[in-house]
Amino acid sequence: MSKTWYPIITEETCTECGKCIAFCKHDVYDKENGNTPVVINPESCINHCHGCGGLCPTGSITYAGEDTGWTPPNRKVNESEECSCGDDCSCNEEPVNSCCPGTDTSCGCSSKPQAKELTIDFLYLDLSICERCIATGETLDEALRVLDPVLKTLNYAVTVNNVNITTEKLAEKYRFVSSPTIRVNGIDICNELVENECENCCDLAGSSVDCRVFVYEGKEYTQPPAAAIADGVLRVLYGNIPKPENDNYVLPENIKKYFIGRASVMNQLKMFIYEPALCCETGVCGADVDPELLRISSVANNLKKNGITLQRYNLNNAPQAFIDNAEINNLINSEGVDALPATVVDSKIVKTKAYPTNGEIVMWLNISADYLVAEFVNSGGCCCDNSECC
After folding, report:
1. Does residue 150 carry a pLDDT above 50?
2. The domain 116-263: what is its CATH number?
3. How far, in Å, CA of 319 to CA of 283, rounded?
4. For residue 184, is pLDDT > 60?
């Protein structure tokens, strides 16, 4: 906050639209005075924030202590005013942060400054069931929509990186301390780390796991409001949150416990698919490959890499498995082989007559969709000789 930086309203051009009052979350303006902007708490203004000024449709807001060269983007220039460079540029466009934007003139006054980079990293443990992570991701999108006109006015080019922290190695790479985390140009928008037990992540890990709590205006939120994220982004931009020191990162015990528990749970996850007769174990052979078989083979391979079993049996290579499973045996006796493929999870048949979709696999195994992404390479062999399929 600043005592030497605050908005100044030009009453002659102000239309009393109320946008500045609605935007400011720091009570700089008198909210009891309708849409007429009156500055009552100048010391509450964030140093070098041009948020309300960027939204003003008539460019009626400037700032005490302005030293950045910023000018109101919507300010109307009198036709008698000359270009600030002193030359006649024959510019017919209205000025925006320069005297002659969009023109190629010898005075050089139309040169548009290069956009400043704004990188936002959204780091999370899970987006399949964790309500905190899901809500925070949605709220981040909402906050950026609100901030979009301000960031454009300030000439920021925004890049958002959504990063699912699935391993200890990734956690160490991103110096991950809690889930979810939002960083702006490498700076966490939260001043302090506050956590409490997360029911969803406890289910994922099979043990007690704490996740982040967002503190905003003295209140704690497991699912932060858009205003909290928008405020955090602006505070980072205007230097009100210090950059982290280059101390040695140590993986927090809480995060380590999550990965240990998650690995244990995932090792217990098993899915079985009972299939009609195929030419080989996977059915992925020959020139004309069924896309569904290719997808299921790719999914099975990737699940295996992540410690999850998707066991496949087909009538040609594993007939005994159909006899040993009482429910599958009863299914075939009552409906015939037309009921295949059949999917079994936790000893229960959950789907028949079609392979499970990726979405169903994610839901039934309670895993992230990232675990299903894989590349399956058809070697052209399998049980076949060259291009001829058996």
Report:
1. yes
2. 3.40.30.10
3. 16
4. yes
Fold of 269-372: Glutaredoxin (3.40.30)
Residue with token string 């040993």: 324
Tokens at residue 94, please? Answer: 């209205």
3 state SS of 227: helix
User: Which residues are CB-neighbours of 278 under 8 A, at least 6 positions away?
Assistant: 293, 314, 316, 317
Q: Give the list of residues 6+ apart from residue 11 with CB closer than 8 angstroms, or none.
A: 60
β-strands 116-124, 214-216 pairing: unpaired
Q: In this structure, are strands 210-212 and 195-197 parallel, antiparallel, or unpaired? A: antiparallel
Distance CA 288, CA 292 (A): 12
Q: What is the DSSP string of 72-126?
A: -TTPPPPTTPPPTTSS-----SPPSSSSSTT---TT-TTPPPPPEEEEEEEEES-
User: For the CA atoms of the chain, what is the radius of gyration?
Assistant: 30
Does residue 302 contact residue 255 with C-beta atoms inside 8 Å? no
Please provide the CATH number assigned to the domain covering 6-64: 3.30.70.20
Residue whose C-alpha is closest to residue 29's, from 59, 54, 61, 57? 61
List the end-to-end C-alpha distance of the chain, in Å, as a whole number: 76
pLDDT digits (tens, 9 = 90+) for 86-134: 444 444 444 444 343 433 333 444 445 678 899 999 999 998 889 999 9
358-365 vs 291-305: helix axis angle to the nearest 10?
Answer: 30
Spatial CB neighbours of 253, under 8 Å, sequence gap ≥ 6: none
Mean pLDDT for 184-209 is 92
Boundaries of every domain in the chain: 6-64, 116-263, 269-372
The residue to which tokens 């890499």 are assigned: 305
- Interval 62-74: pLDDT, tens: 988 887 778 888 7
> Nearest to residue 367, comparing CAs of 293, 271, 223?
271
